[in-house]
Fold this sequence. Notes:
It is a single chain. The chain is α/β, with parallel strands linked by helices. The protein folds into two domains: about 5-260, Alpha-Beta Complex (Spore Coat Polysaccharide Biosynthesis Protein SpsA, Chain A), CATH 3.90.550; about 275-304. The chain has helices at about 35-45, 60-65, 70-80, 80-90, 110-115, 115-120, 140-150, 215-220, 230-240, 260-275, 280-300; strands spanning about 5-10, 30, 35, 50-55, 95-100, 125, 130-135, 155-160, 170-175, 185-190, 200-210, 245-250, 255. A nine-stranded mixed sheet has the order 5-4-1-6-11-8-12-10-9. The longest helix is centred in the C-terminal third of the chain and has 24 residues, at about 280-300. The protein is globular and about 60 Å long. The mean pLDDT is about 95. The site of uridine 5'-triphosphate has 22 residues, from helix 5.
Amino acid sequence: MLKKAVIPAAGLGTRFLPITKNSPKEMLPLVDKPAIQYVVEEAVASGIDDIIIITGRGKRAIEDHFDKAFELEWTLRLNNNLEALEEIERISHLADIHYIRQKEPLGLGHAILCAKKHVGDDAFAVLLGDDIVFSDVPCTKQLIDQYEKQRASIIAVEHVPPDRIESYGVVKVTDAKTEDGHLYGVEDLVEKPKREEAPSDLGILGRYILTPGIFDCLEQTKPGVGNEIQLTDALRLLTKNNEQAVYAYEFNGRRYDLGNKLEWLKTTFDVALSRADLKEELLRHIKKKIEEVEQENKLFSDTD
Ligand code: UTP
């Protein structure tokens, strides 16, 4: 049974400056819960109980979030705020979490390589700390189910519109392997291809099951796009040089990339609209805003 997960969270988050100057982007809230808590909860709900979070400079807030908060718990108990107390205690008992520092942000591939000693000879899951997926069956569980059948690395993919393909790792696939057509054999991978050179419209998102052979490949991988050690390039070596099978799995669910400001805003709205305590008032506010904007546009066009 696959029990370990690595959550890389040491990136600089430059697309989200200035907030990421001294705050981890993985701690950006969706209303009142930080992104990385969703990610840890997905891992736990997928049967994982040993989690390694890769951190770096300025990421202490992540460790504090999953740690026991003695003074806070004491005060909540004193004030009889038992609901909040239960939630705060639950967070510090979610899983066995270990932290490894990536001394320099040399890329996603390098961040995963930092976990080599802890992972050892087992297959493991990777969940990016700024990517969340909402689904009935947790996305990582969907990948683990495929891993149990194939005993090979599995990458979660989704169809990406042509105008966004250049920001993804993209897979070249062989024919679908399953009856429902969701599993493909991977023939090749390219990180951030030019639109006209993309080998398919299947983009890689932040969920993987990796076999330990990936560590040798990561050690051989030279810096690629953005001068970073790319996981996509190491996976390429895994299929080509080591001739180990890699599969791509089109998961069921909706993924949000929180490293991008607009996506983070949209996710925040979606999460808020799914909550009974916020939905009505928020909808009223949005409707009012739309009316105001339409009114402004009308005034503007009337004066033309
Ligand atoms: P991203 O490329 O989205 O993150 O990496 P980034 O580099 O922080 O963001 P930008 O492009 O500068 O805005 C995906 C995940 O991998 C982690 C990030 O923390 C994020 O969760 N990562 C990235 C590392 O852990 N180490 C790295 O060297 C790079």
